[in-house]
Amino acid sequence: MSHLIIEDLSMRFDLPNGEAVQALQDVSLELKQGELMSVLGPSGCGKTTLLNIIAGFLAPTSGRVLLNGHEVRGPDPERGMVFQKGALFEWMNVRKNVAFGPSMKGMPKAETDSIVNRLLDSVGLHDFKEKAVYELSGGMQQRVALARCLANDPDVILMDEPLGALDALTREKMQGLVLELWKETGKTIILITHSVEEALLLGERLVVMAPRPGRIHKEYRLPFAKMGVGADLRSVKSDAEFGSVREEILNMIWEMEEEIMGRQEQAL
Amino acid sequence: MMILLIYVAIFVAVMLLYTALHKFVRQAHDFTSLKTVTFGDESAVRANRVASVVSVITIFLIWGAFTGSKLVPIHAPGPFVGETSFTYEAVNPAGETDEGTVYVRVHPIDEKAEVPVVAEDGGAGFAKDDAIKVAAWRASDPFKAQKNDLGGQEDGYRIVSVNGQAIEPLGAVQVADGEVRMTGRGSLVFEPAKGWQMEPIWLPAPEAVWGRLIEIAREGYQNVTLLENLGWSLFRVLVGFLLGSLVGIPLGYAMGLSGWFRGWFDPIVEFMRPVPPLALIPLVIIWFGIWETGKISLLFLAALWIMTIAARAGVSGVNISKVHAAYSLGASRFQVLTRVIVPNSLPEIFTGARVAMGVCWGTVVAAELVAAEKGAGKMIIAASKFQNTDIVMMGIILIGIIGYGIDILMRQAENWLVPWKGKA
Questions:
Q1: What value of ipTM does the predicted structure carry?
Q2: CB contact, 8 Å: A95 with chain B?
């Protein structure tokens, strides 16, 4: 049975100048428990809007999101978020950041501590528990963000370009970590990214969205995420099929961008 | 004007000297020292501590040199003090001329002195010698040579020259150690040379100010001790600031969190913000009187708008990701406020608090100048009425030091409480 159902989501809003924006149009998706889905698309295709609606930060103008049979109406710890950057609390050290979710629920300290220790071990930050978050590198900060999200044991993890601000090497390491955590925890994960390669590596399912109006353009089911778990990601990337799908998607996005440019030129 | 030129000259001279000597001094070998582009790279501009030290010393040197301080080896020429004399030539009705000498004793302004003694007969001829005394920086009373001189009261008697230089009514002649002027009625006035030094009533010497500090710290001024004066000012600032923060910070949060609150208070805050607290003094006195209620209300108003705006800016400065993250982690609205918005706004609140403390400190002194029984401002305004410039100077220096001290303490507290400021 489906676990997360996105039903005919549309979102339309007015701009101050009187025009209206159709950010999403009839987006429907169904995810099973434990699926890893990446969402890709040129800027303006509504992928972040989609994620914010699933998270409950935005309301759709029509359609609905169902998680485990109940409708999403606002943010809730059942749906954890990992942001690109700047979402950690600088006034708390690493341990307290990770313990934030459990402490909001009023979980006893001993239990919270054991969860925090376990998660910080699994993201490789055992020795940084008492550090201030602003003393950590960007990659380490994102490890904290992942651990903080997992500490709440959410049903779905929503990632909004979580690795977008990292350098290429750190990014590759973190991609491995995301796959590991996915395998380990069996969470349902929706990941938004700009990078075609990342979308291929971190998506059992890959959704390509198209802009104006934001809609689903094409969906893939890919073997690379499973191949990548515990394996060398570079060998996955050098796989022949990986290369051909990457080219196909790059061309697709390229055409979309061309089309947008063409439309803009006509408008001018 | 001259002092300014001297100041600029010292600035340039020390700079050139420092640059010339600099290559013999051991150089720093840090990263910044290797930058070749420093003009335009603000981060490469570091305050030259030698310049800071010399700057402070220069101010004291100039202050001392132009006030005749004993602490300073070099002095600007002081006012003439001591014995001097000049001669005048008079014509009597008979057309004869004769010379008389005027002996002048110029005494320090804060000392008494006797008129010098001259011989009874006062020289041959009809013009007799005279003696006068005058304080440094002052002009002598018009002295009437004619009273002393034989036949001086007769028509036709007049003084024609001083030290051999012709003089007319309302004219002046330069003599040794000063100037002799003739009044419209033919009397003479001696004004000793003033030199370049400042009279203590304009600017007292540093040691006079220091001496006053010791004296007033020990004995108080007008039955109020120094600590009491400063303590009252500080107390008013603290109470006014705390009350202003107590109301302003929650109000700022409310304005940052609720559209109704923002809409309601925006016009009030935006209107009151540009009104300088000093402009409120008359109204506050009318409403609350000149006693503590009035002063504390004024400081409350001075701090209120600054803290409101700081808290509002603190709320709007929160990264929306942090708020979203907190809600996604299960925080309630109250928890988002206390765990995210309040800590996140602390840097802004501290910046506001520093500004507010500075404004309050300035306002309290001004309010005390207008009306107060005790306080730093009251002390200096009272002293100024008695022309105790040294107490005024002392008060101003103490006010400056305390204001600076408050700012340093606030910065320390900020570093301690908001260590993440500027690092996120």
A1: 0.90
A2: no
Q: May I ask the CATH class of domain B207-417? A: mainly alpha
Asked, for residue A13, whether it belongs to a domain, the answer is yes
Tell me the shortest Cα–Cα distance from A176 to chain B, in angstroms.
23
The answer to whether B324 contacts A55, with C-beta atoms less than 8 Å apart, is yes
**Domain range enclosing A144:** 83-153
State pTM to two decimals: 0.80
Domain boundary assignment for chain B? 1-15+46-76, 82-192, 207-417
To test the contact with chain B by mutation, choose from A78, A104, A105 the residue with the greatest count of B C-beta atoms within 10 A, namely A104
C-alpha dihedral over A61, A63, A65, A71, to 10 degrees?
90
- Summarised one tens digit per residue, pLDDT across range A202-257 is 888 999 998 888 888 888 888 887 888 877 888 888 888 888 888 888 988 888 88
Of B320, B327, B321, B318, the residue nearest A79 (C-alpha):
B327
- Our count of domains for chain A comes to 2
Whether the CB-CB separation of B255 and B308 falls below 8 Å is answered with yes
Tokens 């429907």 correspond to A28
CB < 8 Å to A105, chain B: 330
Q: What is the pLDDT of residues B285-305, one digit of tens each?
A: 888 887 888 888 889 999 999
d(CA B424, CA B418): 11
